[in-house]
Each structure stands twice: as structure tokens, then as C-alpha cells.
Amino acid sequence: MLSYQHAYHAGNLADLQKHALLAWMLDYLTAKPKPLSYLETHAGRGLYDLSGPESEKTGEAAAGITRALSEEWLPDGHPLREALDSIRGAHGPDAYPGSPLFARYFLRPEDNAHLAELHPAEHEALASVTRFAHLHQQDGFAMAHAVCPPTPRRGLMLIDPSYEVKTEYEIVPRQVSKLARKWNVGVIALWYPILTDSRQAPMVEALRKNHPDALISEVRFPPARPGHGMIGSGMFVLNPPYGLEDEARRLEAIYKRL
């Protein structure tokens, strides 16, 4: 459960969908002069180098964020593009932030953040770039249950497991429902992969049944390499902010052209 290294996949087509929607939501929520809480259950290291050997080995970032920028999938003023430009201004043109650093761009001094990362090396790297947040080296769901409902009660949680262990697909719907009961006003966003064997399908169906008012957005794309099992990316959002569905459908239309 501690073997996953996102450096091989940072900036890929799945990251692009997830981060575009996350940035849109954070931009929307922070536009109002009310403090909020940001929680993340599987934070990763926070910052990645797209010129590093991991990224170059897979080429996933080239097909993802690099292509998106060159083909202007993110128009001027898009929250993700503005955040990425700012972060690259500080860390270099090959930097790619994970969701914690995207969050840091939008969060204000009055906001509160809790980030969980269990992997020792990833947690150490995360600590070096996210001094704005409360860091937890523990299971992400355990952190979320301990913190919820957070103070301030207004806010957003990102759940982004690696899904290395098949039982995660069974655990996630129960965890989401428990957290939704504890934090019924929170925006709860879950990312999941779409796989060739459709193992995610029962999880998504359970989520849809338990939360019929949630926003579900899925995109498909070619496998990163022959035989690669991931062929798409999904976002499930409870209490979606107004207008998020329009952004989700805009992205879906772009992916349909791939």
C-alpha cells in the first residue's frame, strides 16, 4: 500500500481533469469573503519535476498538461492555468504541482488546511512545500474522520486514493457516506480511475445510488502505453458548487476529441 509513486504519472490526462475541476472549485469558493477548510486524504509529495526520469520514462505529462497548454485547452483566466503559471514562476518551467500546491495558491490566511500522506518519503517531501497546512502522516480516511466536521465548516475535501488495493473500491463508498453525514455542508470530491476491466464500475454505481444528487464527470482517453489498464478518469462531487457542471462538460467535450 506504500509503493505508489505519483511522479511517474504527474501531469497526465487524469491529473488534468482532476486539477482543472479542483482549481475551478477552489477559485469559486475563495471568491466569497468567508473562510473555508480544505482537507486532502491522499496528498502525495506536492510538487513534481516533469523533466525528471520518472516523468520522461512514461511520457504521460507530455500527453497531458504539456499538450493541454500547447493546444489551449485551458483558456486565459482559467484557474488551473493561472495557478500553474504562478507556481512555475516560483519553481521553474518543468514544475508540476500536486493538488496540495494548487490548493495553496487559492487558500487565504484565514483558511484552514489538513493534508494526510502515509508514505514516509512522500510525506517528507510534502512537508517541505506545504508549511501552510496541518500535515498528518496517517491513513487519510482516519484523518478525515478525526477532523470532520472541520472549522470552518464551509469547505472542500479531496479524496484521491491510489487504488493499489482492490478493496479500496469497496471501502470508498462507505467512507464517503460516513463523511457526508459528518460534514453535510462540505464539498466532497472523489477522483477514481476508469479501467479496462471496469473494476471501478460497482463503486461508481454504489456512489450514484447513495448520492443521486452528486455530480459525476467521466472522461476517456487512449492508454498511456500498450496494455496500460487506465483508459479514463472520473470525478464524483457531493454538493458541487454552482457552475461546476458546465466546466465538467466543457472538459468532457475536449477529451472526446482525443
UniProtKB/TrEMBL annotation:
InterPro entries for the chain: RlmJ (IPR007473), SAM-dependent_MTases_sf (IPR029063)
Function of the protein: Specifically methylates the adenine in position 2030 of 23S rRNA.
Chain sites annotated for binding S-adenosyl-L-methionine: 19, 42, 99, 117, 139-140, 160
Gene3D superfamilies, per database record: Vaccinia Virus protein VP39 (3.40.50.150)
Listed PANTHER family: RIBOSOMAL RNA LARGE SUBUNIT METHYLTRANSFERASE J (PTHR37426:SF1)
Catalysis: reaction(s): adenosine(2030) in 23S rRNA + S-adenosyl-L-methionine = N(6)-methyladenosine(2030) in 23S rRNA + S-adenosyl-L-homocysteine + H(+)
Membership in a protein family: Belongs to the RlmJ family.
Enzyme Commission number(s) of this protein: 2.1.1.266
Organism lineage string: Bacteria, Pseudomonadati, Pseudomonadota, Alphaproteobacteria, Rhodobacterales
Catalytic residues of the enzyme: 160
Protein name according to UniProt: Ribosomal RNA large subunit methyltransferase J
Site (Interaction with substrate rRNA) residue list: 4
Domain of life assignment: Bacteria
Subunit structure: Monomer.
